[in-house]
User: Which sequence fits this backbone?
């Protein structure tokens, strides 16, 4: 692996961002992994007409096609305004062509006196270190995969099976900025289908059409844990589900719908 770029994106001003090689996905160095894409859209949503005392609780990203490693623009609008519940919509474009869209619910934070109820078991401890990340032979590891630090607990990108991994970004989403908790969760969440895949990625291509991330609280700290599994059936499609956690426990879920085809 080559050293990652200094950030996933360089700001261009006016809502524009230049994707660096750190955004490149495992399928091709020319197209972005959807993790940074989701993070950049989430960043724009958080910054659009913020309302004190509210938080972004759910983001659904629709991937309209391959997102090139190139300059992009992100625009956000309010679909349903409100003091307690707001629906926002974002669009990412490349040279005027839409490449991704997203909706997000921004809702009032729950009262401090509300009793907590979390049913997921605590995540496994963060491993002190793991073997170097391995992927299928033709996979591109010099983009997003090397811009993230991975500590595998169970599974591998190189072989089928559910997996659990701790991860953090080695670089910020946007140069010169600190990532927010929402951005950190979104940048990782799209890796669920790789961590939890039940198919041999050397033989089968899996491409997610969407990503939904729902968070009942904001994550804390750089290191996040993801436990993912993928279900797939002949004459059907694939569905990947993941639990997201930090050192204090589970904080949300991720869901992906995937196309499966022969490579």
Assistant:
């Amino acid at each position: 692996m080559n050293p990652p770029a200094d950030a996933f994106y360089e700001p261009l001003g006016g809502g524009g961002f230049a994707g660096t090689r750190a955004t490149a996905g495992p399928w091709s160095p020319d197209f972005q992994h959807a993790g940074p894409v989701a993070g950049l859209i989430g960043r724009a949503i958080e910054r659009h007409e913020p309302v004190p005392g509210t938080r972004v609780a759910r983001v659904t990203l629709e991937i309209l096609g391959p997102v090139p490693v190139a300059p992009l623009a992100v625009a956000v609008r309010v679909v349903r305004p409100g003091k307690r519940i707001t629906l926002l919509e974002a669009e990412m474009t490349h040279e005027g062509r839409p490449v991704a869209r997203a909706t997000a619910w921004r809702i009032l934070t729950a009262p401090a006196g509300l009793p907590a109820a979390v049913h997921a078991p605590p995540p496994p401890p963060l491993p002190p270190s793991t073997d170097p990340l391995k992927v299928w032979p033709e996979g591109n590891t010099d983009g997003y995969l090397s811009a993230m630090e991975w500590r595998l607990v169970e599974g591998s990108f190189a072989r089928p099976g559910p997996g659990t991994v701790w991860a953090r970004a080695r670089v910020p989403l946007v140069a010169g900025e600190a990532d927010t908790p929402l951005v950190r969760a979104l940048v990782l969440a799209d890796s669920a289908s790789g961590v939890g895949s039940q198919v041999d990625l050397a033989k089968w291509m899996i491409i997610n059409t969407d990503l939904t991330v729902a968070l009942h609280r904001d994550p804390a700290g750089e290191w996040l844990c993801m436990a993912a599994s993928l279900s797939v059936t002949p004459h059907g499609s694939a569905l990947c589900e993941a639990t997201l956690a930090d050192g204090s426990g589970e904080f949300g879920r991720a869901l992906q719908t995937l196309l499966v085809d022969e490579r």
Remarks:
- The chain has a mean pLDDT of 92.
- The longest strand covers residues 249-262.
